[in-house]
Amino acid sequence: MSLSGNRTRLATITRELSNNWLRTKEQWKDAKSKEFEHDYMDELFACVDKAGPVIEQLDKLVTRIRKECE
Q1: Binning pLDDT at 50, 70 and 90, where does residue 26 land?
Q2: CA dihedral 48, 6, 59, 18 (to 10 degrees)
């Protein structure tokens, strides 16, 4: 699978996780839920958002390297 394919897969999986988290929050509404969201979920989603453009840049670089090596 290409890097751009992996980027798409990461985005899809993250969207699914976000939807599952929203459903979980409907039932889990205490202080620990908010703490968990702040400590883990928010950080995860922020990292995935940052990773997308980096993966795209890497994909372009790998493509260029492959062309130069042909």
Answers
A1: very high
A2: -20
Q: Give 27-70 pLDDT, tens digit per residue.
A: 999 999 999 999 999 999 999 999 999 999 999 999 999 999 98
| DSSP calls for 34-69 | HHHIIIIIHHHHHHHHHHHHHHHHHHHHHHHHHHHH
Nearest to 2 by CA among 70, 50, 59: 59
Local structure of 14: helix, strand or coil = helix
Q: Which residue has the tokens 């130069």?
A: 68
Domain-wise residue ranges, the chain? 3-69
Contacts of 55 (CB under 8 A, 6+ apart): 3, 4, 6, 7, 10
